[in-house]
Structure formats: C-alpha cells, structure tokens
Specification:
mainly alpha, Arc Repressor Mutant, subunit A, two-stranded antiparallel sheet, two-stranded antiparallel ribbon, 21 helices, 58% helix, elongated
Length: 450
C-alpha cells in the first residue's frame, strides 16, 4: 500500500475563518447529521473529501470542524509519538455498540448448546479456529505457504520443514500456551518471552530473538515498493516506553475506567508503534492483544481467527495504523477497525459452529447402525467422506480432538477393526485411510455424501 495523504492542518484553517461563521455552520442540522455519519464509520480525510457534498462551507473548513469535535472528546493515554505528542481516543456510539456486542458474545458460554455437540466436539471445532489464527497471523508477516499445507502440518503434528511453516508452528504454540501466563502482570520479560516463542528458528540472526533492539539496529516499516511508512522511536527510548506500556496494561485505576477490550487493542497498537524488536513485532503485538483479552475474561478470543479477517483486507489494517499516526495521534481509527474485525471473527465462528452442529447431527444419524462408535470416530468418518485423499495418524487425531495419544490410538484401531479405515506404515509412522467403499459401508445417500 502507498503512504496516505495527510489531512489539512485544521488549526491553521480555523485561524483564517470567521468565528461567527463557524458557530452558524456547526449548529446547522444538515452539518450535524453529516458529522454524525462521519463518526459512525470514523472516516479519514481521504474518504471525507470525496463524500462531502454540503454547500455550507469548503471541505477543508468542514474537516477542521470535524477534527475539532473529535479532539474535544479525546481521552489521552501515556503513549507519545516520536515528536512527544500524546496519543488518545474516544468512543462514538458506534464503537460502544461494538463493545456491547463483544461483551455479550466473547465472554459468555460456548456458542453452540445443541445436545448433538458434545464437549469434546466443541473443543475440536475451536481448536480448528486456533489453527486458522496461527496460519493467518503468520501469512500477514510474509509466511508463504498454503492454508491446506499449514493446517495439515498442525493436525498431523509434523515438524516444520521451512521458514514459513516454522512461523506458523511458532504462532500456534504461542497462542495455545498464552493462557498459561495470563495471571502474570505484563513485564519486559513477558514481552521478550512472547517474541522469542514467536520467532524461534525464523530469524536471520538468532541472537535478536527474545530481546529488544539495540541502538545500532535501526528499523523502518516500508511497503513492498520500499516507500517509508513508519519510523519507530529510537532504541534508547525503549526502556521508558516499555515501562509505560506495562504500567498501562497492569493499572487498576478505580477512578478512571478503560474498557478491557479498548485497552487490549491499544496495547496492540502501542507495541506495533514502538516496534521494540528487530523482527516479529506484528505477531507479538497480536499475541499481546490475545493475552490481555484472555486475562480480562474474554475466553473465546483464544479461538477467534482475527488475523484471518485482517488478512482479507490487510491494507485496511495498515491504514488504520497510519490514520492514527497521521491524524492528531487519534487511535480511534485503529479501535474502529479492530472492533469490526473482532465482531466479524465472532460471526465467522458462530457460522462455523452452526455448520458443524448440522454435520454432527447428520453423521450421528447416518452412523446409527454402528453402535459403539464415539462422537470423535463419527466426526472423523464424516470428514473422510467429504475430503478426497485424506490420511490420518494417531498424532493428527490426537491434535484435532485434544485427546491423549492412547485415546487417539484406540479410536483409530477400532475403526480399522470395523473395516472403515485401513492402516499402512510409511517410515516409522502408521497412516489410516478410509476404505474405498466407505460410503457403501455406511449406506449414505447421494445427498448425504454431498
């Protein structure tokens, strides 16, 4: 993406205009309605200048009044830019609505309460989403591999064979284990540990893993064309900046409330802005967001593939950073984008679980003539019927269902004994594949197969 256009200097514009005229414009009902519309989507200057269609005043003056209105609501935070200007944010009604949605759906019970979906099946569905997040987050940082290959690696427990797979494996392990440290306060050591876990065996210089960048390691954020997008603060400022970041994450001010989701998103932005590591800053920033969300009781976040949503529109993600930096250090742009991404990720998960509920009902019905098969075995057979050339191992079944090695082994051996899977050995590993006549054995109709 290209560097964005800077908005007009609103203070300079307002100085040139008549104060009385400002008052008349700002009290005009059409202008008020237009400003409210702009704040619902929290649009930036590049879009504003194309949709402004009122004849009340010039678009520069209209933008300046909008910016002045936003600044009057802005709540400052301890993060400053490289010119010592404080960042801040505010919450229009549209963002309060998004936060209400998250409070309802990200901190409550499991999304599917059907009796056909048992606890272990719910866990299996959610693990799949966790894998999706690990893959998408790594692909955002340049991991060049297909989703199919990456997911098979995670399911089968196969060791990474290249740089891209190592990135994805690291992401998966880190996100999976992040709930083990949610009781700890944020500290420089926690941040370093997250980055070390995410970058293990992926850096050109392994010595840069698990530590902050040094003075002789300047860093710049550029687009694929080499155009400079962001220059992070110098390394000598990092100790104080990281100290303030940790204080912000750990504070519990009874006199001033910051919504936990807002704080989590700000932490994401903050670490990405400071770019304290030589590499892995984006992945670490997203992991920090997950850590704080889980710490705050939004347990479902562990299974939301937010990066998958971001990956569908990466330019919007990066623009949200740039808008916040370019326009009065206003993080509301990033909050607005991120809250939408979380909501879309929840909606995707709800659809996914609803689909799986239906599938489990179908496979339970079709396998009713095979008493003694558990839900894991039924789900595996359904998967085998709808995926060509699929193979299973004890490790893949164990990882997919979050069960022990012995339980996974018993599941597959029973299916082999019933003549539904057949086993062969390659190297030291036993593979299980569906028998060629599986559909006939299960007596599924053509409609059910599709």
């Amino acid at each position: 993406m290209k560097m964005i256009e800077s908005p007009p200097d609103w203070k300079a514009v307002l100085k040139k205009e008549n104060v009385e005229e400002f008052i008349n414009i700002s009290s005009n009902q059409d202008f008020i309605a237009f400003i409210n519309k702009c704040n619902r989507g929290y649009i930036y200057w590049d879009k504003f200048k194309h949709i402004y269609n009122l004849n009340l005043t010039s678009m520069e003056v209209a933008w300046s009044l909008l910016r002045a209105t936003r600044n009057s609501h802005k709540k400052k935070i301890p993060l400053t830019d490289t010119q010592s200007k404080e960042f801040g944010y505010w919450l229009p009604d549209s963002l309060f609505k998004e936060l209400h949605y998250l409070d309802q759906h990200a901190a409550g019970e499991i999304l599917v309460d059907s009796p056909h979906v048992h606890a272990k099946e719910k866990e299996r569905f959610l693990i799949s989403s966790l894998m999706e997040e690990a893959i998408a987050s790594s692909q955002l940082e340049g991991a060049a591999t297909t989703r199919k290959v990456a997911k098979e690696m995670l399911r089968f427990g196969r060791k990474p064979t290249n740089h891209a797979e190592q990135m994805i494996y690291n992401n998966y392990v880190t996100i999976k284990n992040i709930k083990n440290i949610i009781a700890e306060p944020l500290s420089p050591d926690v941040l370093k540990a997250l980055q070390a876990s995410l970058t293990q065996n992926t850096l050109d210089d392994p010595n840069t893993s698990g530590r902050f960048r040094k003075e002789d390691e300047p860093i710049e954020v550029v687009n694929p064309g080499g155009e400079l997008l962001h220059t992070p603060p110098p390394a000598h400022e990092l100790p104080e900046r990281i100290k303030l970041l940790c204080q912000f994450a750990n504070e519990n001010n009874e006199n001033e409330f910051t919504h936990p989701v807002v704080r989590a998103i700000i932490l994401h932005f903050w670490l990405a802005y400071d770019h304290p590591f030589v590499d892995g800053n984006g992945r670490t920033a997203r992991a920090l967001f997950y850590w704080y969300m889980l710490k705050s009781g939004y347990w479902l976040t562990e299974y939301l593939s937010i990066s998958r949503v971001i990956k569908k529109a990466p330019s919007q993600y990066y623009r949200a950073f740039l808008y916040s930096e370019k326009d009065e250090q206003d993080i509301t742009y990033f909050l607005s984008f991120h809250l939408r991404a979380i909501r879309l990720a929840i909606e995707e998960l709800r659809k996914y679980l609803a689909k799986k509920t239906t599938e489990i009902k179908e496979v339970t019905t079709s396998l009713i003539r095979y008493p003694g098969l558990n839900d894991r075995q039924s789900a595996l057979l359904y998967h085998a019927l709808t995926h060509a050339d699929v193979m299973y191992t004890i490790e893949s079944h164990m990882n997919t269902c979050a069960i022990t090695y012995e339980t996974a082994r018993a599941d597959l051996l029973r299916l082999d004994k019933k003549g539904l899977l057949e086993k062969f050995k390659k190297g030291r590993t036993f593979y299980y594949v569906p028998v060629s006549s599986l559909d006939k054995k299960l007596k599924l109709s053509k409609k059910q197969k599709n």
